[in-house]
Design brief:
By secondary structure, the chain is mostly beta strands. The chain folds into two domains: about 230 residues, Jelly Rolls (Sandwich), CATH 2.60.120; about 130 residues, Jelly Rolls, CATH 2.60.120.10. Helices cover about 5% and strands about 35% of the residues. It has two helices and 27 strands. The strands form five sheets. An eight-stranded antiparallel β-sheet has the order 15-19-12-9-14-7-6-27. Strands 4-17-16-8-13-10-11 form a seven-stranded mixed β-sheet, with no helix packed on it. Strand 6 and strand 7 form a beta hairpin. The chain is globular, with a radius of gyration of 22 Å. The structure holds fe (ii) ion (FE2). The site of fe (ii) ion has 4 residues, from loops.
């Protein structure tokens, strides 16, 4: 389920009827749908048929397909990626766009996790035909331009882009940093947050009005030949269309890009420690995404507010540290990422459990990705690895 029906721009009163432009020509109707048209879909009306291709050129995918790192020891990892922006800046990489700035960190068949650091220029037009993308915007902001219209985004947003969307990021400044999850399945809001009609329930940590949809169509009427970088899995091609594809004059349906701010997530708290599922934000095929937000801590008598040692037996657990001090860990800075594979318990740093008793609030802000299948460290991510992490739970 997505955040519900939305309609933008001009659409005819009925589906599949003649819908004419002021010059008398027909607009080109397109139905974009999931699961063999048995899932969510939208109907879009283009000025130019989206099939008007002048040229197809095979290209190496950007970014290149993830490869396994040489380091494959089964152990906890701490990836200190905070310096990534500075490093990219030094290498002159920030002149590139969001796609060029991506670096794979971890992957399996269900998800690929990347970090992108990129500059202020408008990105290339691209389309991920094989995966939904979630961009957690750590730094930066701007406008996502897509066939579904304009969507303003800012730091703290999850920007969810369904597969098949033609889009580009147009940042409003430099210094952009996105934590990205790609999944060949769909991104959904958890079923248990909804009633039988799909409306979000009162106990959900967000509501329909917290989701921001595209606000106006782009509706370009531009016959300039335009390149679109299309990717599916590890294959890519540049399609040259005989028009600018951001030409949709109207659309409606349940499939579209949207933004949800992590700051609009309303944490659920109690007298005793609440388990990780209360932080769940999205449901993927083979993974979940959770938001750890500033909140009141458990206030029962003598309660240990730090999380207990835990063995999440069916999941690899990835935590991306956004802001604040993550109180169960020590020495972890904003922009770092931990990966706790299944099979090895983890827990609070030494002394944290004792120190947490009586603590009333936490200002931690983090994004968690739990995957059901084991993850693989991507080649290149070893450069961020802090090899001392697996033994960091020993007492001082
Ligand atoms: Fe954990």
């Amino acid at each position: 389920m997505a955040p519900g029906y939305h309609r933008l721009g001009e659409v005819p009163s009925k589906r599949h009827v003649a819908f004419r432009a002021p010059n008398g020509g027909l607009y080109a109707e397109e139905v974009a749908g999931l699961e063999g048209f048995g899932g969510r879909y939208s109907i879009l009306y283009h000025r130019f048929a989206p099939t008007r291709v002048m040229k197809v050129a095979e290209v190496d995918p950007v970014p290149a397909a993830p490869a396994p790192a040489a380091e494959s020891t089964l152990r906890h990892h701490l990836l200190r990626t905070a310096g990534r922006l500075a490093e990219a800046d030094q290498d002159g990489e920030l002149d590139g766009d969001e796609l060029a700035g991506r670096r794979w960190l971890l992957f399996n068949a269900d998800v690929r996790l990347a970090l992108s650091a990129f500059g202020p220029g408008p990105g290339r037009l691209c389309r991920n035909g094989g995966s939904d993308e979630i961009h957690f915007v750590h730094h930066g902001g701007g406008r996502l331009e897509s066939t579904y219209g304009l969507l303003e985004y800012r730091a703290g947003d999850y920007v969810v882009i369904p597969k098949g969307t033609t889009y580009r990021f147009v940042p409003s400044s430099g210094g952009n940093r996105h934590f990205i999850v790609e999944t060949p399945g769909a991104v959904r809001l958890p079923r248990r947050y909804q009633n039988a009609e799909g409306q979000l329930l009162e106990h959900a940590p967000y509501w329909e009005r917290d989701f921001r949809r595209p606000t106006e169509v782009v509706a370009n009427d531009d016959p300039t030949p335009t390149d679109v970088w299309v990717r599916v899995g590890d294959r890519a091609a540049v399609y040259t269309l005989d028009h600018n594809p951001l030409d949709v004059v109207g659309w409606d349906g349940h499939l579209y890009p949207y933004a949800f701010s992590i700051h609009d997530f309303e944490p659920i708290t109690g007298r005793q420690h609440q388990p990780p599922p209360v932080h769940q934000t999205f449901e993927l095929d083979g993974a979940v995404i959770c938001s750890f937000c500033p909140r009141r801590l458990d206030d029962g008598p003598d309660v240990v507010t730090a999380p207990y040692n835990h063995a999440n037996l069916d999941s690899d657990e990835v935590l991306y540290y956004v802001d604040g001090s993550f109180f169960s860990r020590r020495g972890i800075e904003s922009g770092a990422l931990t990966w706790h594979p299944k099979g090895i318990p983890h827990g609070p740093a030494p002394g944290v459990a004792e120190a947490s008793i009586g603590k009333t609030h936490t200002d931690e802000l983090a994004v968690m990705v739990d995957t059901f299948r084991p993850l693989t460290l991507a080649a290149g991510a070893e450069a961020f690895d802090d090899g001392a992490y697996p033994t960091s739970w020993l007492p001082d």
